[in-house]
Design a protein that fits this description.
single chain
């Protein structure tokens, strides 16, 4: 099955599209785009984790454990 990506201009347009798709019984998943602040916070968090590892304060996860979490 194909995936369709729609980017409405505002909340009103989003609500209208959602109503139409629900009436058509189309499965809908909404993904919010991360803000610049979210991205910067994620980068900062990763940098802190890397620094903690380099200082020996944090251990990295084993690849198998990481894959098991998925």
């Amino acid at each position: 099955m194909d995936t369709l990506v729609i980017k409405p201009h505002d909340d009103q347009e989003l609500n209208l599209l959602m109503q139409v798709l629900r009436k058509m019984k189309v499965r809908v998943e909404v993904f919010k785009e991360p803000t610049s602040e979210d991205i910067l916070n994620s980068i900062e968090s990763g940098a802190k984790d890397a620094a903690a590892f380099l200082k020996g304060k944090k251990k990295l996860k084993d690849v198998n454990n990481l894959l098991n979490e998925l």
